[in-house]
Amino acid sequence: MAIPPATEEEISGRTLYGDSFSSDQIREWYESEVTGYFDLLSDHYRITDADNQYAYEYDALNQFHAIGSLLKRQFDTCLALGCAAGDDIAPLAPVVGRFIAIEPAEKWWHNDIGGRPARYMKPSAIGDIGVDSDTVDLATSFGVLHHIPNVGHVVAEIARVLKPGGLFVLREPISSMGDWRKARAGLTANERGLPIEWFETLVRTIGFKVLARRACMFNPLSAIAKKLGVPSPFAVMPLVMVDWLLSEALRWNEHYWRDTFAKKFAPSSAFWILERPAP
C-alpha cells in the first residue's frame, strides 16, 4: 500500500501528515525510516567512524533549554526515544537510576549510558512501547518524533508509561522542513516538523500540561557560525544563548510552510517540557 499524498490541511500545518495513516502505511513509513538517522550520519554527513561513533553536536543546546533544569531532580527511570548511542541523554546520568532506550539501529546498542544501566529495545512499527504503565519518571525525545508518522499514538504511549507527575521533555522542528514530497539533501525520506498549534492541542487532549515551550535553532545564525569556522554552533553555549534570544524575538514570523526567503527568518525548532499531572 503506497503512502498517500499530502492534503492541503497537512501542507498548511493544520493537521500533521502521517498521523492518520493506516497500520500498513505506518509500517511502510517505518521501513524507510528505521535506520535513516544512522545512514545520514555515516553516508551523507560521514561523521561516524569505523566503530559507529560520532561527535554529538547539541550538548549546549539541550543543556541550556532542558537538561540544566532536570539536574535539580532525581529520576529512577528515564525512557529515551531514538537516543542513538545515548549522547543526548548521558548528561542526565547523575540524576537517573537507569535508562530505557527505544532505538531501532542496533549498531548503537550497549549496556550503559553515562555509567548508568541502559536497556535498549526496538520500537514497534506502529509505535507501541513495550513498557508497563506508570513506571517511568522521565521521557525524552530530542529530534525524533518528526521521523514518526503517527505522532499522536506515540505521545499517548509516552503518557501511558509515565507516572503521575512524570515529565516528557522534547525538542522538535516546527516547520515542514521543505517539501517532504520529494527528496531533500541531508534529510530522511519522510521527516517533517510538528506544527506548534496542532502539537499543543494534541498533548493537552492526551492529558499533558505544558510547563514550558522555548524557541530555538535560528538557522541563519547557524549558517553564519559555520562559515566563520564553528562547525557545531549548538555545542557552544554563548551561541546557544544568542540563538535563543533571536529565536524568541522572531517567533512572530513562525510559519509551517516556509516557501519564501522572508519566512525562513524564524526559529526552526522548539523545546517543550510537559508534565503528566497527578490525578
Strand and helix layout:
Layout: H1 8-12, H2 23-33, H3 36-44, H4 59-70, E1 75-81, E2 96-102, E3 112-113, E4 116-121, E5 136-142, H5 151-161, E6 162-173, H6 196-206, E7 209-218, H7 219-227, H8 237-249, E8 267-275
Parallel strand pairs: 1-2, 1-5, 2-4, 5-6
Antiparallel strand pairs: 3-4, 6-8, 7-8
Here the CATH topology equals Rossmann fold
CATH class: Alpha Beta
Number of helices: 8
- Span of the ends, CA to CA: 42 Å
Give unreliable regions as ranges: 43-51
The percent range for helix content is 25-40%
Structure characterization notes:
29% of the residues lie in helices and 22% in strands. It has 279 residues and is α/β, with parallel strands linked by helices. It has a single domain, classed as Rossmann fold (3-Layer(aba) Sandwich). The chain has an eight-stranded mixed beta sheet with strand order 3-4-2-1-5-6-8-7, with helices on both faces.
Which terms summarize this structure?
single chain; 279 residues; alpha/beta; Rossmann fold; eight-stranded mixed β-sheet; 8 helices; 8 strands; globular
Short description:
With 279 residues, the protein is α/β, with parallel strands linked by helices. It has one domain (17-275): Rossmann fold.
